Each structure stands twice: as structure tokens, then as C-alpha cells.
């Protein structure tokens, strides 16, 4: 089985700094966004969370990601939100991607 990173709504960037920050819904674009570092994610079928390659605005609704409703999801990355190549396989790969924006 391929390696992957799951998120239950806690920001994977902040978790590495021991900060427990849960995604909230952005007011304008409907993406999920970390209220601490403004990482943006898009909910994608079947069970993915796509990490966008730009930060959000920090204008958030008081709605947090509900893991009981949306579950733990596989983190994927740009440039394409499709295909196995987009699955982030480990923390090194995640951090390399996060360093690009
Ligand atoms: Zn964060």
C-alpha cells in the first residue's frame, strides 16, 4: 500500500510545530483554511484534501472541520489534484511542497 498522510482537520503544518489548529471555512471561497498559518485546502472526492499552493486571507467563518462528518482524508498537492502522483507520501514531501509558497 502506498504511503500517505491523513488529516482529521488538524493543520499538518502546525502539527509539526506542536500547534493544534483546526481548519475553518473561509468566508469567500469556501475552502478550508488554517486559522494559524492560513494554509488552504479543498475538499475533493473520494476522500482527499487538496492543499492549495497559496495562503488564504484569514477571513474565516466560525465553522470548524468536523472529523465525524468528513473523516480523515488523504492529503494531496498541486499542480494537479488528480492521480496517485499527487498523494503526499511523507512529511519530507509535505514540507518540500509547503516551502514553495
Ligand atoms: Zn496551520
SSE topology:
Blueprint: E1 6-7, H1 12-15, E2 24-26, E3 32-33, E4 40-44, E5 48-51, E6 60-64, H2 67-70, E7 73-77, H3 91-98
Parallel strand pairs: 5-7
Antiparallel strand pairs: 1-7, 2-3, 2-6, 3-4, 4-5
The structure holds zinc ion.
Give the averaged pLDDT, no decimals.
93
In sequence order, what are the helices and strands, one letter per element? Answer: EHEEEEEHEH
Helix percent reads 10-25%
> How many runs of DSSP E, i.e. beta strands?
7
**Poorly predicted ranges:** none
Describe the oligomeric state of these chains in a short phrase.
single chain
Relative strand content: 25-35%
Q: Which structural class fits the helix and strand makeup?
A: alpha+beta
Using only C-alpha atoms, the radius of gyration works out to 12 Å
Question: Cα distance, first to last residue?
Answer: 29 Å
Give the cofactors and ligands: zinc ion
Number of folding domains? 1
The number of distinct helices, counting runs of at least 4 residues, comes to 3
Summarize the main sheet.
Answer: 7 strands, mixed
Overall shape? globular
Strand order of the largest sheet: 1-7-5-4-3-2-6
Amino acid at each position: 500500500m502506498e504511503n500517505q498522510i491523513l488529516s482529521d482537520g488538524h493543520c499538518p503544518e502546525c502539527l509539526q510545530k506542536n500547534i493544534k489548529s483546526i481548519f475553518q471555512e473561509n468566508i469567500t471561497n469556501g475552502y478550508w483554511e488554517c486559522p494559524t498559518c492560513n494554509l488552504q485546502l479543498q475538499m475533493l472526492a473520494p476522500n482527499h484534501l487538496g492543499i492549495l499552493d497559496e495562503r488564504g486571507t484569514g477571513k474565516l467563518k466560525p465553522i470548524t472541520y468536523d472529523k465525524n462528518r468528513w473523516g480523515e482524508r488523504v492529503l494531496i498537492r498541486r499542480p494537479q489534484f488528480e492521480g496517485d502522483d499527487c498523494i503526499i507520501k511523507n512529511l519530507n514531501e509535505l514540507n518540500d511542497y509547503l516551502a514553495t509558497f
